[in-house]
Amino acid sequence: MRFHNGCREGHTEISFVASGTNLQLVFNATQNPYLHDKECDFDKEHGKVYIKSYFIMNGVCVRFRGWLDLERLDGSGCLEFDERRAMHEDQILREQIERYNLRLREFEDSKRAYRDSRPEVDMEAVRRGVPSGGIGVGASMWRR
């Protein structure tokens, strides 16, 4: 009964005994008769529930597709590569990398602009350790 209620709520846990893989599946459990592609279908075959769930496993977009017997709580299922969602995730990653590179270029440009705006004399004084008119703690500050 717990498994049955979990499926109706849109979640369940399954195990692939042969490989020792445990999955917590989350899916759309709405029982809308107008949806032709249900993710949780109790009506397809008596005594069984057919489940589809989409997730990312080890960085790969996959789809679980299978059925489970409601009395024995066993069944059959497989994981398939989900190309459509993988392309979507790849696009998100590319946009994120592009934003990161843009911020990095902006930072380098502002750093370069700051460096170029300072007079060369002050930079040379800083390199030699000679106090200039800038703010900071120098040797001359501690003399009385």
Describe the structure.
By secondary structure, the protein is an alpha+beta fold. The chain folds into 2 domains: 80 residues, Polyomavirus Enhancer Binding Protein 2, Chain: A, CATH 2.40.250.10; 46 residues. Helix content is 36%, strand content 28%. The radius of gyration is 31 Å and the shape is rod-shaped. Keywords: Coiled coil, Nucleus.
Give short descriptive properties of this protein.
6 strands; 144 residues; four-stranded antiparallel sheet; 2 domains; alpha+beta; Polyomavirus Enhancer Binding Protein 2, Chain: A; CBF_beta
Overall tally of domains = 2
Order of helices and strands: HEEEEEEHH
Question: For the residues shown, what is the average pLDDT?
Answer: 82
In the CATH hierarchy, what is the class of the largest domain? Mainly Beta
The tally of beta strands, per DSSP, is 6
Could you list the spans in which at least 5 consecutive residues all have pLDDT below 50? none
Helix content: 25-40%
- The geometry reads as rod-shaped
Number of helices in the DSSP assignment: 3
Major beta sheet summary: 4 strands, antiparallel
What is the rounded Rg? 31 Å
Distance between the termini: 87 Å
- Structural class of the helix and strand makeup? alpha+beta
Strand order of the largest sheet: 3-4-5-6
Beta-strand residue percentage: 25-35%
From the 3D structure, determine the CATH topology of the largest domain. Answer: Polyomavirus Enhancer Binding Protein 2, Chain: A
In the CATH hierarchy, what is the superfamily of the largest domain?
Core binding factor, beta subunit
- CATH architecture designation of the largest domain: Beta Barrel
Protein name: Protein big brother
Main location: nucleus
GO molecular function: sequence-specific DNA binding; transcription coactivator activity
GO biological process, one term: regulation of transcription by RNA polymerase II
